[in-house]
Write a structure and sequence with these properties.
This protein is of the alpha/beta class and 480 residues long. 45% of the residues lie in helices and 10% in strands. The strands form two sheets. It has a ten-stranded mixed sheet with strand order 7-6-5-4-3-2-1-10-11-12. A two-stranded antiparallel sheet has the order 8-9. A hairpin with a 4-residue loop joins β10 (376-379) and β11 (384-386). The protein is globular, with a radius of gyration of 22 Å.
């Protein structure tokens, strides 16, 4: 259904009249649904809301959608049912208004990010060796509750679809549950990225009650000893597993997330099998990024060849029915296309499956691989905005002084990240740059340039070898 809807949007919005209609309905109305969102709601729910202009506009949009379904062979009732979900309507409205504003682009430019990852607090009860945030103690200048609620209103007004609370450990913030409820009240999807150690059965019940949509628990190994060593707390593994079980039992969409290094590379299949036994919905592999405390363990990063083999394993496991198996590595899209001989594709970690007559190649180009500054961005505990949580020091704006929509629209750094033609060296010449483009956080972390090549890719093995020698020399000097 996602593909049918995207197909309808892309084809239906390719003419200037449709784009003009959408732009008229996308007038900013702070604190209220846009006229376009009202029209989509009217189409999905068969109801009429708003003033006479709103109702007339809704009738026009409903007519255009019905005609589009008929023209492109889509099932109007199925799309109407799909749009009953308010988060889906918000996502569709964001895509429509983005095409109305920018036209159909490759990858698609968006008027607002689909996802904002919000590091709610720097406080954490663990001391993970690979922590990009260098979390531990609460920062003295973290936003107040009033400021946080104001940020949620700004993100909703901008058209953001989903907010993922991360950290630190977001459950250590006394504001988390009130903020999560506020996100849902504003019609946005809410996700929680957590180490899982603070999720008791009663915590999971409360998460379910306020309708937290997705819980992602970090787990480094199937082996308790290996996990606890990397996390810096004895017993962390058992407590994380309890958190996972509690969420699964409450029917929350639950994921195991694993950052792969040499420390746990051989644990990946065991972790996937553990996820299946625990009946979680998803296993997701995260790239190691040399940021925060991660800069202290760069010697544990896997080689491009090891990453290539790992992504092939992820692809093979993704074909097993019952649990999604995905990766955040942008190269995953290339791996899936190569391994399936073009019969399947994966727009990074969003989905992997059959290409069909239309769709996933278009979806892959629509999403465009690494989404830093394009599909998503991050907010630090003190209100600083960065393109990605794995770029904690690349500040593009401050919410205390500038509205989020203005930062997203005008930041030079974000504009450069959206232009795949600016990528340098091998990434810039690669025929997969529109569906991959390399991890921009790794480029920044290793080469201090977010447009530089991603040295984690086998097509950049020469750069990796040169860098590895430099890193080894620096590490040995530091040890001495």
């Amino acid at each position: 259904m996602l593909l049918d809807t995207l197909r309808l949007l892309k084809l239906g919005m390719s003419n200037p009249v449709s784009r003009a209609i959408v732009r008229f309905g996308d007038r900013n109305r702070p604190g209220e649904s846009s006229r376009l969102e009202l029209a989509l709601s009217s189409f999905a729910l068969n109801e009429s809301k708003g003033n006479s202009i709103d109702r007339a506009y809704s009738f026009l949009v409903k007519t255009v959608l019905a005609m589009g379904c008929q023209t492109f062979g889509s099932n109007v009732d199925s799309i109407r049912e799909y749009l009953r979900d308010p988060v889906v309507r918000r996502a569709v409205a964001t895509v429509l208004s983005s095409i109305g504003l920018y036209g159909v682009t490759q990858p698609q430019l968006l008027k607002a990010p689909f996802l904002v990852v919000w590091n709610l607090t720097n406080a954490c009860n663990l001391r993970c060796r690979h922590c990009y945030q260098n979390a531990g103690k609460r920062l003295p200048d973290e936003l107040s509750l009033r400021e946080k609620l104001g940020v949620i209103r700004e993100l909703a007004d901008a058209g953001v679809v989903s907010i993922a609370f991360s950290g630190g450990e977001p459950l250590m913030s006394p504001d988390f549950f009130e903020l999560a409820k506020a996100v849902r009240d504003h019609g946005m999807h809410v996700a929680l990225a957590t180490n899982g150690t603070l999720i008791k059965p009663e915590t999971a019940k409360l998460l379910k009650k306020i309708d937290v949509c997705y819980v992602e628990v970090s787990l480094d190994a199937a082996s308790p000893e290996l996990h606890d060593t990397f996390r810096g707390l004895a017993g962390a593994h058992a407590r994380s597993l309890e958190g996972i079980r509690s969420c699964v039992e409450e029917g929350i969409f639950t994921s195991i997330a694993t950052t792969v290094t040499k420390h746990n590379l051989k644990e990946v299949r065991d972790l996937i099998n553990l996820g299946r036994r625990m009946k979680v919905n998803r296993f997701i592999h995260f790239n190691f990024i040399p940021a925060g405390r991660g800069r202290e363990i760069v010697q544990l990063d896997i080689t491009p060849e090891e990453r290539e083999e790992l992504l092939k394993v992820i692809y093979e496991e993704s074909k097993v029915v019952g649990m999604e198996v995905l990766s955040t590595a942008p190269q995953f899209g290339r791996i899936v296309a190569e391994q399936s001989r073009g019969e399947s594709t994966a727009p990074t970690h969003f989905y992997a499956g059959n290409s069909g007559k239309w769709g996933l190649q278009d979806l892959a180009r629509f999403i465009g691989g690494c989404g830093a500054g394009r599909l998503y961005c991050a907010i630090q505990p003190n209100g600083l905005v960065t393109p990605c949580v794995f770029m904690p020091n690349l500040v593009v704006g401050k919410l205390q002084t500038t509205r989020f929509a203005k930062i997203w629209r005008e930041s030079r750094t974000l504009r450069e990240l959206r232009n795949k033609n600016l990528l340098k060296s091998t990434c810039g010449r690669c025929d997969n740059r529109y569906v991959c483009g390399g991890c921009r956080a790794r480029a920044l972390g290793y080469l201090s340039d977010y447009l530089a090549p991603d040295v984690g890719c086998v097509r950049n093995s020469a750069e990796w070898e040169n860098l590895r020698k430099e890193l080894s020399a620096s590490y040995l000097k530091a040890v001495e």
